[in-house]
Specification:
Elements: E1 5-8, H1 15-22, E2 26-29, H2 38-45, E3 50-53, H3 61-66, E4 72-75, H4 85-90, E5 95-96, H5 103-118, H6 121-129, E6 150-154, H7 158-171, E7 174-178, H8 184-190, E8 193-194, H9 197-203, E9 206-209, H10 223-227, E10 234-237, H11 246-254, E11 260-263, E12 283-285, H12 294-314
Parallel strand pairs: 1-2, 1-3, 3-4, 4-5, 6-7, 6-9, 7-8, 9-10, 10-11, 11-12
Length: 327
């Protein structure tokens, strides 16, 4: 059997290319820091047997129509809304991903956003840079206490569970959650309570979003939803920016319908520098770095490469989105 050709669509940690080359694959590397355009992705993917891609790569019906040699897609991410999964499945193309590698580091970011937002850390740091650190004022720059508050998790999966563990362990938070289905394991281990969506909104002191981006969750957190939250609540999103409507979020903060927001994801991305969220004292924004640790990115590279290696050698994909294609 001739060596399989694999396209790496970004400059990934070298764990991936090293593993692939050690196992006899021919690796083509996109050597620019910027992502490919959709046209570039299609042109560069032609003639390859598989691609190792990430969220910035658009892999929809047109891609599969033109890149007929691609027999496997391995995603360097836990999300995969950039890929037309139904079309891949129809064509018998397995789609791999990297679920567990990002759980703990993303939970760290969610936890950090809660603390930074509650204590206005980014805003106060910027005030020092502006030379505004003056004398002590007892009623100024006051934040919120997190201890013994109620954490409401929307999407209690891997990342949501890790976030809940941090909040319960550090601040003795009560955990409530809303999912499409109940997570009995989390209920037993964390004392988490399943509630309906409206109850989650009305009872939570912090609403932390950890759901997948789907047609049902796209801009779910909008004007109507924010109006149902506590005026003292903090909104945290480390999932996908498109889960919240950013215009509505800005309005809810300006009107005091919610107290603050911590975002690792924005709508759109990247965020423009003139976005009013960046100037609000109760808002913390990061540039989508949830998985941004050396260990996590190396593990994502290992998992992505392993998915490809196992598929072509053993017709197996250890971390797969659409397992039915292998049955």
């Amino acid at each position: 059997m001739s060596a399989k050709k694999i396209l790496l669509t970004r400059i990934y940690p070298k764990v991936a290319s090293d593993l692939l080359e050690e196992n006899g694959f021919l690796v083509t590397k996109w050597d620019k820091e910027r992502p490919m355009t959709s046209k570039e992705l299609i042109e560069n993917s032609k003639g390859h047997d598989a691609i190792l891609c990430t969220l910035t790569d658009t892999i929809k019906e047109q891609f599969f129509k033109e890149c007929t040699t691609v027999k496997m897609v391995s995603q360097f991410a836990v999300g995969y809304d950039n890929i037309a999964i139904s079309e891949a499945t129809r064509l018998g193309i397995p789609v791999g991903y990297t679920p567990d590698a990002v759980s703990e580091p993303t939970a760290d970011i969610a936890f950090g956003l809660m603390i930074a937002t509650a204590r206005k850390m980014f805003y106060l740091h910027k005030s020092i840079l502006k030379g505004e650190w003056g004398y002590f004022k007892p009623n100024s720059d006051l934040g919120l206490t997190l201890k013994n508050k109620t954490l409401g998790i929307f999407g209690l999966g891997r990342i949501g569970i890790e976030t809940a563990k941090l909040c319960k362990g550090a601040y003795n938070m009560d955990i409530i959650y809303h999912n499409r289905s109940r997570n009995k394991q989390a209920e037993a281990e964390l004392g988490a309570t399943y509630v309906d969506f409206n109850t989650l909104l009305s009872q939570s002191d912090i609403v932390s979003v950890h759901c997948a981006l789907t047609p049902e969750t796209k801009e779910l957190f909008n004007k109507e939803v924010f109006s149902k939250m506590k005026s003292t609540a903090i909104f945290i999103n480390t999932a996908r920016g498109l889960v919240h409507n950013e215009t509505d979020l800005i309005e809810a903060l300006q009107k005091g319908e919610i107290w603050g927001a911590g975002l690792d994801v924005t709508n759109p991305e990247p965020m423009q520098t003139e976005n009013p969220l960046l100037q609000m004292e109760n808002v913390t924004v990061l540039p989508h770095v949830g998985s941004g640790t050396i260990d996590a990115r190396d593990e994502m590279s290992r998992m992505s490469a392993t998915n490809i290696i196992e598929f072509f050698k053993n017709r197996a994909v250890p971390y797969i989105v659409n397992p039915e294609v292998l049955q």
